[in-house]
Gamma-glutamyl phosphate reductase (Arthrobacter bambusae), 456 residues
Amino acid sequence: MTEALTPDSPVITDALASGNATRVPETPELGTAPLTPGQVEAAVHSIADRSRQAARHMAQANRAWKDRALRAIGAVLREQQDSILAANAKDVESGRNNGTSVAMLDRLTLTPARIDGLVAALENLAGLPDPVGNVVRGQTLPNGLRLRQVNVPMGVVAAIYEARPNVTVDIAGLALKSGNAVILRGGSAAAHTNAALVTILRDALESVGLPADAVQSVDEFGREGANVLMRARGRVDVLIPRGGRDLIQTVVNNSSVPVIETGEGNVHIFIDESASEEMAVDILLNAKTQRPSVCNTVETLLVHSKSTVLPAVAAALRSAGVTLHVDSRIEAALSGSVDTVPADDVDWATEYMDLDLAVAMVDNLDEAVSHIRKWSTGHTEAILTNNLANAEKFIADIDSAAVIVNASTRFTDGGELGLGAEVGISTQKLHARGPMGLTELTTTKWIVQGEGQVRA
């Protein structure tokens, strides 16, 4: 158990002077003075320094050892399910009392089924190959030098996210399997749940002989702790924000630590004139209503003017409780048969994360592509078609992290695509793009072996 420290503790004072503290202050008790910015900085730097030490151990751990840790975490999640759900109930109740949106409450909520999903993801990770040491490429040069480029861990990975306790387990599992240490900032909305999960993660690591400090949290230091984390260049190797646009842009614009940007999901589906009614109804219902609060849910539907499936699709979506925000052509085509509300430019740009869908009519594939290029966030776009040429053109013309033909956009997910889990969906083009799994949490290094060669 970490020893509780007061704001004027000599350990913190020493840390300010040396930058080498070995203990971290717990959240001050009620009635005590809050920590000063300098004390928070010292505490977060101490966490990062201990993460660096833990990362060196994790980088040396073999696959069997790391897989043992993942399975230990899964076992404790099952054993402690009741206490996790009790902690989560406190966060959900607090969120409800604070007016948190239905979509955000859904992301915040854990259930027995969702905990089972986290355990299954850890099992999947344990069954995947270890990316560390994988040879990306290699050759022997004419001068006899033997070259290998191999995957190695990033080192210290930090994640800032909000109201998503599942991310605590997903990111920790991916980081550990890829030989990294992780620092988590999960936000106040999930404070009780994340505290319980971090304790479980640390205890499970210790139970198999790996350093508990491979998983740490800065939640107790609030926003100032997050700010310090963003400025901890040299102590933290990479920072991954996961959440809404405001959170992501705050991290991107204020971090001195390299950032892998995960993007909001203004996701589109285009129904071509050749798409069948049955497929269109099934896919739209799944893509919009299965879990509307997540980033791979469809937010805009584009319908070819010659398609005959619009009435059935619109009726099915309305029956499922979806509010349709439509342009004038869609409104006219439905002729009042389905309740709608008028759409404007705000709707084309909105990630609803709820049972709302923007719907527009287009006359051809080029118009659909043009609309997507204007409004997309580069996450996921799908086409429903029985025309192979149109499918191939859509694939070629759309520049998003994932392009889907005749399937739900909900498949843009690390677990669904065989990655075991995901850190997030990257919409940038540097290093990682799309669902980020194990390999995306590694970098590479060159190994050059010679026998006395010197450069001419």
